[in-house]
Amino acid sequence: MKHALLAALTLAAPILPAMPAALLTASPAAAQSPQLEQACIAVARNFLLAPVIKTGIVQSFPELDPPGARLTYSTREDAKPTDFSNEIECQFDKAQPPFSLLRFCISRTCYGPNEQEPENRRRYQEVKALMDRAKK
User: Fold this and answer.
1) pLDDT tens for residues 97-106?
2) At a CB cut-off of 8 Å and minimum separation 6, what does 63 contact?
């Protein structure tokens, strides 16, 4: 499909105004903040008790309030592109380290200091404690 679109654009090039090359090729969203993304991966590893997490699509949003990141992941060592169906979203106090975890959601369950479920508050406190220890 991508090649057919590129071929069509090449044929139409003489009649189209000059377009930047970036508009002609599809690419995933550029990483905004690798540090936010790595912090969110650390949240996932700590929560899932997994030493290694394979990531699929990773997006970060340092310009939002609160800043955060979200990504798809798999805990399988031999992960294939179709295995990245799990998702985590993390929110932090600021866009620069050291980060303080405000809240995170895995799939449709959220964990934070103000969650209704005591167990979800507890899981948040555990992950936040692990993240805070890593800063020291």
Assistant:
1) 999 999 999 9
2) 32, 95
* Residue 11, pLDDT score: 42
In the sheet that 109-111 helps form, which strands lie side by side, from edge to edge?
54-61, 68-74, 86-92, 101-106, 109-111
pTM of the predicted model as reported, rounded to 2 decimal places: 0.75
pLDDT of residue 6: 38
- Cα-based torsion angle of the residue sequence 132, 89, 92, 135 in order, rounded to the nearest 10 degrees: 20
Residues 6+ apart with CB under 8 A from 113: 102, 103, 121, 124, 125
Low-confidence residues of the chain, pLDDT below 70? Answer: 1-31
**107: which DSSP letter?**
T
- Residue 114 is encoded by which pair of tokens? 């103000």
**Burial bucket for residue 120 (CB in 10 Å: 0-12, 13-18, 19+):** middle
What one-letter code names the amino acid at 66? P
CB contact burial 93-113 (16+ within 10 A = b; e otherwise) = eebeeebebbbbbbeeebbbe
